[in-house]
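Newbie here. two chains, one complex. Structure please?
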Amino acid sequence: MTLNPTDTRKLGHLLRRAGFGARPAEWTEYAKLGVAATTERLLHPETAPDHMDDVLKDIQGDYVDFDDMGSVKKWWTYRMSHTPRPLEEKMVLFWHGHFATANYKVDNPRWMWQQNQTFRSHALGNFHTLLQAVSRDPAMLIWLDGADNKKGRPNENYGRELLELFTMGVNSGYTETDVKECARAFTGWRYDREANTFAFHANEHDDGPKTFLGQTGPFNGDDILDILVRQPQTAQFLCTKLFKYFVHDTPSPAEIAPLTKVYFSSGYETRAVVGAILSSSAFYSAAAFHSKIKSPVEFTVTALRTLDAPFSATNNTLIGATRAMGQDLFNPPNVKGWPGGKTWMNTMTLVNRVNFAGSIAYEMGRRGTLSGHLRRGIAAYGTAPGGLNTPEQLVDALWGMLLPGHSPTPQTRDALLGYARDQGNPGSVNFDAKAGGLVSLILSTPEYQLA
Amino acid sequence: MSFSKPTTRREFLTNGLTFVGLGLAMPTVLMRAAQAQTFDPLAVHLPPIPGGKILVVIEMSGGNDGLNTVIPYTDLGYAKARPVIGLPQSDVVKLSSSIGLHPSMGAFKGLFEKGQLAVMTGVGYPNPNRSHFQSMDVWQTGSTEVDVRERTGWLARYFDKDGHFQGNPLSGITLGSSLPLTLFSDDVPASVIGSGTDFGFKSDAGDKKQQMEALRALYAQGTVAGSNAEFVRNVGSEAYSSSLELKKAFNDYDVKAGSTAKYPANSGLASGLQTIAKLITGGVGTRVYYVGLGGFDTHANQPRQHANLLGDLSNSIAAFYNDLALQGRANDVVTMTFSEFGRRVKENGSAGTDHGAASVMFLAGGGIKGGIYGDYPSLTDLDDGDLRMHTDYRSVYATLLDKWLATPSQPVLGGSFPHLNFV
């Protein structure tokens, strides 16, 4: 089924932003549903099946070893590449960047995986509940020294980052004293290494009176979270981050205000805020289309899904590739996460993206599966109504599949045509000889780097 | 953020490699593009970089504990504040009758005795900020006013305000996988080169020449709608041209000098500095190099972690200058170390230290006037538990801009700061 150009553009945009692009069979499915119903489906991942864990018990013949960081990374990227719940995984990635925790200090892959599962359980759930879960998460407790935070000897690490990075945001009105009082409230919050769970050590907890953000009481960590989640600054900070993640990097106050209202009226439900974002006029505005530089994970996983490539086509290089592009999953550079935007793009990371694109196309070509996948993809996206006989038809068909609803510039199209044309016979094209190279080139274009 | 004591050397190295060239191997299915022949149709002519002195910046991330790095070892307050993590007088590498270095920094003694190491004490800025990110922003932007929207680095502004740098992306080089804020602006002529040796577009396809030609056409300078797309396009053009220059410099390196210099093995920082030495002696012309060493946020179990890091730092810098000296370039290069803040005077209950304020900086090189600069701040007259600064970090920057890089500091820093005498 072929959508009209407007809806094609919107659907392509929605699937790129609220997921990682669509495999051809998914595109067909979503095109039948239309943009609005697709949005609803994405916002309710629980309506899509999730037998991923059965499948994931055996990736390329290897069992997943949850005590090995590389294996856990593979587990997650495989999920992202194949999940029928793309918005859920996109939100897990968001929370991973928000509550940025790194294994280079935690040094416990199983706990990093557990944390990832916590993000998944609450991906589109209640933000208050998520805060409570994260504050008890063993990986987080190691990461921000929760275990060293004791009555009489507070360690301010978690108290500070909770305010600065996880809830209210830096410079939003809390003081150094608030940080200290917050740290006191979380004293005694420890982990039990054998049980892999949270453990509260009452004897290390400072239950004395504290004054936090102008309120006084014998606050425990949960009391602090109750106070924080109610703060307008928290609403502003979280909604702004979510807007930037889904829409574009420069929101106006008028675009954030309605979202903070939804945050409060829904009782801190992430699904409600994300839903409001995805149905806003800002989301489909000209400022939003193809305006965000894709993160390395978005770039690689979207390429895989759109090409309908199996995870194995990356020959186990996906993890190293995203790291070389500046995004090492489970190892953000610091607790602030990945700054994103233009910081993704420099001479080194661009070179790595281009080389990755070439390697996928090359591998699929080598296996002899590329032509078949591409023909099916072109059919699903309906981008070759007149056939695939000329260089122009081939370039337009592949471009339309990889960047639905977005036209190439004349310069870009000319460069691709220059490659596709057979010097001896410029009016015709050999699909099998040229399609793979074209895919590699399209994935390397400046346009494709943007979502 | 802090680190528990690393239990293996591999863990330590992983921690230390946060910033420096990751040197990741690309998949073996990829082959390099044809090496530069006498004529390469893909090469874009890069304008020459103006000649002059070279600055190497080493970012020590996490907040280096200056008090255990440069130690006022005769001050009774020192041992009193640090009963567990304080360094014994007998172990300190003595530079004067009252000031010494951490015991693991023996490699710096030679540089100091040659008069090629300036030790700055009490460096900071007014109203110190103890947040990693805010304070690092202050150091990297060269401004105590932080603008969240449009932030540029002080060295990026150096390139811009100097007026002689015309779009050669190798004017500034970062080792590693991301451009630091120090070198960030929309138009900065700086590159990120990973470890250097693995840099460049590659293709394994049968018709790779045609693919490369198409790639070049896609990235050739031209107008394209949208600011982010234009940004990406510019990055691509630069990538092409840069890779050719780098390859040439690596091929020309004096390997014998390199091995005589005795760079520490298994050190990301040492590899990075050696790569820089190759580029300097290879005549690429780059004026600013940037490399990082992470792991300094020692909230707990500081002694071993800190000792390892300071040993790595001093051994690597000493080897770097051995290498440069053998190739006659040591007088042309100043290396500056900095960190986002120091740490509190009093140790905490976890054999570590929490975020502090004023700290130390090192400046090394043949052109440096070595010595200890400034009286060590008082250990008793503190600013809320932290050392008081007596030297604004922007004085260090201004001195380097005006006297080493030979460009007016005022437009770069947005103000005038008194010069220091280290160069």
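Moderator note: Residues 347-367 of chain A form the longest helix (21 residues). The first strand of chain A starts at residue 189 and ends at 192. Thread marked as resolved.
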